[in-house]
Each structure stands twice: as structure tokens, then as C-alpha cells.
UniProtKB/TrEMBL annotation:
Residues 1-65 form the ABM domain. It comes from the Bacteria. This is Antibiotic biosynthesis monooxygenase. One of its GO terms (molecular function) is monooxygenase activity.
Length: 204
């Protein structure tokens, strides 16, 4: 599968209305596009950050949907967004949650690496990091998204609630330290969000 992420920052006071528009109108528009497989919507109300991920069955669906929806996406974000960054990714490892409650939490880790080490990263994550994450209380699901050409990746992990998210920090740091050394990657940033929507359907 493939993923398009949109990361927007702006005035926290304007975040809620835009998040509501994306979770309703934006989600409806996405669902009408061929190849759509799901959506994630995450917010940081304190700092004024919004992250949207849309999931697609193949690259063709990813590109076509962007052409169809780019203008409407900008319109939906406009009341809030002072800055917007959009990226396309390959979903290299996906372990979606079975279900999430209303207080779920999300951690995003951005990574950088030599593009030649992409397969090394994917194998290390699947064989070493993922089993370690699954042993952490409250862990609900995770995805590894990669950009092979640019040598970038992001790891998005879901937790059952924000207390579990906070409690997991030490255990996750230990998993991350070991895996990043083995995969030869650099951690560029770590962020945490509240989950508004998280629904991905694997292709049949």
C-alpha cells in the first residue's frame, strides 16, 4: 500500500473546526476515490498541529487522488493552516489496530538513512522492532512508511489511550535505540498526537 501524509501547523484556536471538516467532508471525498484503503487523523491541540494520512492500494490510486483532491484539500485546511507539507510514502510494514477507543494516542518518529539501506531498515523493523513494540502494554498498531529515493521514513505507533502512550516512552526508547543502530538510521524527531480517526483496510 501507499500513503499520502499532510502535516499542517497553525493557530490552535482554529484547529478543532478544521479537524471536524476533514473527519467528515474530507473523509467522504477520500472514500469516493478508487483505491482508497483508509485514513488517519491526528492532532496536537496545544501546539496547533494536524497530521492526516490517507492510504491507497497502489501508486496509481495515490497519484490520481492527489490530482482530484488537491484543491479541495487546500480549501479545507485554509482556515487553520499556516504551513502545509505533503509527502508520499510506501507502506513497508503495516500492523493496523483491531479497534481503538476515543482516547487513543499516536507517536510519530521521523527517520533518515542512506537510501541504499532501505531494505535493511525494513527487515530490522519487521524482525526486531515490531516484536519489541508488541510486548509493550497498550500498544495497538504501527506502520513503517518509507521514501526509498530520499532516504526518509516515519514510524507511526498507536496506543490504546494517552496514559499508555506516556507510559510506553521508556520501553519504546530502548527498542528504538537498538533498532536504529542495527538499521543504521538517524532519528530526526519524535512527536505525540491525539487520535481522531485511525482506520486502514488491507487490500483483499
Amino acid at each position: 500500500m501507499y500513503v499520502r501524509t499532510t502535516y499542517a501547523t497553525g493557530d490552535p484556536a482554529r484547529l478543532d473546526s478544521v479537524a471536524e471538516a476533514i473527519s467528515t467532508e474530507g473523509r467522504r471525498l477520500l472514500s469516493e476515490e478508487p483505491g482508497y484503503r483508509g485514513m488517519g487523523l491526528f492532532v496536537d491541540r496545544e501546539l496547533g498541529k494536524l497530521l492526516v494520512g490517507s492510504w491507497w492500494e497502489d501508486e496509481e490510486s495515490l497519484r490520481a487522488s492527489d490530482e482530484h483532491l488537491r484543491e479541495r484539500r487546500a480549501e479545507l485546511l485554509a482556515p487553520f493552516a499556516g504551513t502545509v507539507a505533503t509527502d508520499n510514502w510506501e507502506a513497508a510494514v503495516v500492523s493496523p489496530p483491531e479497534s481503538l477507543g476515543p482516547r487513543a494516542g499516536f507517536r510519530l518518529v521521523r527517520l533518515e538513512f542512506d537510501p541504499a539501506d532501505t531494505d535493511r531498515l525494513v527487515e530490522t523493523f519487521r524482525e526486531a522492532a515490531l516484536p519489541g513494540l508488541r510486548r509493550i502494554p497498550g500498544f495497538a498498531g504501527v506502520s513503517l512508511l518509507v521514501d526509498r529515493a530520499k532516504g526518509r521514513a516515519s514510524v507511526g505507533a498507536l496506543y490504546t489511550d494517552r496514559e499508555a502512550l506516556a507510559a510506553s516512552r521508556g520501553a519504546v526508547a530502548a527498542v528504538r535505540e537498538k533498532a536504529t543502530a542495527q538499521a543504521r538510521v538517524i532519528t530526526r524527531s519524535i512527536e505525540e498526537f491525539e487520535v481522531l480517526v485511525a482506520r486502514v483496510v488491507r487490500p483483499s
